[in-house]
């Protein structure tokens, strides 16, 4: 689908994506699952380019969940490698395009130190960019994010009467991040899988049957066309 098919006044400000189906894409081709993740990188790159063309200001992608540690050690190692390698290879180009890169999730002992370093460097390098914010949810869980926010409030000595929705929001991993307007999941699965639980309270959910490695900017346009056909009422 072409970009011109959309109403330019109703482009969602924040699109969040569950990039699902890498394993099945590889399996269908008789390849190891890791090849699916490698192919997923091209899909991500094209989607970022499409998001820039569309004027989307926040794009969030689910790269590794707190549950993904349960996968075979080789696959976990590969996912660490692919995340580090994408940051290393693409950050200068994204930086030149005005993309601010942020990573949300737990930075705990399980994440290799070199990757943690790469994350900090990339965030620092792109900190002042104002074009689009690309948020990578890495070692991220929606429940963990809420738990961490509540812990931070308790550690700061916040009285129970002061713990309200605004207080929790201020302690999420990125308090500046607006709630997603559109949450998109690929590969025909109709689940949220612990993604942005707090933030998606009023998001439109769109599902695509395309496996993530086959996803391209045209599919993003299709998802936004579906979004534009919806009537958002926010409970009103
Ligand atoms: C889900 O497919 C995908 C992942 C767990 C990893 C997503 C990672 C990438 C697309 C790599 C590049 C991304 C960044 C941000 C560096 P799955 O393995 O669950 O597929 P399946 O459901 O078919 O098994």
Question: What can you tell me about this protein's structure?
Answer:
Strands 3-4-2-1-5-6 form a six-stranded parallel β-sheet, sandwiched between helices. The protein has helices at 22-28, 33-54, 73-96, 113-126, 142-155, 165-170, 217-229, and strands at residues 14-18, 58-65, 99-104, 132-140, 182-185, 204-207. Helices cover 42% and strands 15% of the residues. Helix 2 (33-54) crosses helix 7 (217-229). It contains seven helices and six strands, in the order βααβαβαβααββα. By secondary structure, it is α/β, with parallel strands linked by helices. It is globular and about 55 Å long. Residues 19-24, 37, 40-41, 44, 61, 63, 68, 79, 82-83, 86, 136, 187, 212 line the site of farnesyl diphosphate.
Summarize the structure.
With 236 residues, the chain is of the alpha/beta class. Helices cover 42% and strands 15% of the residues. The model has no long low-confidence stretch (mean pLDDT 96).
Secondary-structure map with pairings?
Elements: E1 14-18, H1 22-28, H2 33-54, E2 58-65, H3 73-96, E3 99-104, H4 113-126, E4 132-140, H5 142-155, H6 165-170, E5 182-185, E6 204-207, H7 217-229
Parallel strand pairs: 1-2, 1-5, 2-4, 3-4, 5-6
The structure holds farnesyl diphosphate.
